[in-house]
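cache lookup: miss for this entity combination. No prior model stored, computing from scratch. Input as submitted by user K.M.:
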Amino acid sequence: MFYPYNTLQIWDTVGEACTELKREYDQCFNRWFAEKFLKGDRGEDPCSETFRKYQSCVQKAIKEKDIPVDGVEFMGPNKDKPES
Amino acid sequence: MVKYFSGADLLKTTWDQVCIAFWQRYPNPYSNHVLTEDIIFREVTPTNCLISRRLLTKFSRAPAWMERYLPKHMSSSAYIIEDSIVDPQKRTMTTMTWNITHARLMYRTNPDNSNWTELKREAWISSRVFGLSRAIQEFGLARFKTRVTKTMKGFEYVLAKMQGETPTKTLAETATERARETALAAKEKAKDLASQAQKKQYV
């Protein structure tokens, strides 16, 4: 089956309603990350409000779509040892 | 059974730029398979490290011969989790990405030239599909290598754009050829193993 890439909206968030919130957050984060965080500035995070709004939208979408993100430890698979 | 792969790359740009690009690398011309990208967790630790979890959905079609052995939800789209830790003090970024392949990427400043950034890439591939595990591992490894090349190309594209250059052909091109050959060889090998395993099952 040929997958029609050109008819897909290939750039999106998992929650279609969250697009604008994501865009706002990303803009804020990228600025803070480059200008403050990487330069060692430990001041207050200016993006916490936009992040909160974006998160509440995207977490809702994750639940609705039943995406299995729960129960996965941070950097989890890292702890697996290669078996022979 | 788990297979281990490791490789290294050099990006001729600073660690800071690489980290900044890391968060802006979608979309890029090499990421057509990435459908969505979302940060689903992020915080700054007490030691001032940034930890994040990114959820990606990718269109990921396994070849027909493999598809019948995979669970249904894996046969056309994949959910990928990418966890990362950015340490601005140590100037390292470590990421962990997994689906059915497991990979870890570590970015740190190249010790010889502080303007360059070194990538160390390791992969563990494991599969529990009995009888075809080796074939799937080979295929998974081949696809991982192809993806890695795309990742590098995507990265270099975004970095060039950020630095105001017109993205041109990069040294990733030679890596692409090699990766393609390796991927093809592995794919053929995997097909062989699969048909052998199938014959064994039905005899």
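stored under new cache key. Chain A touches chain B through 42 residues (CB under 8 Å).
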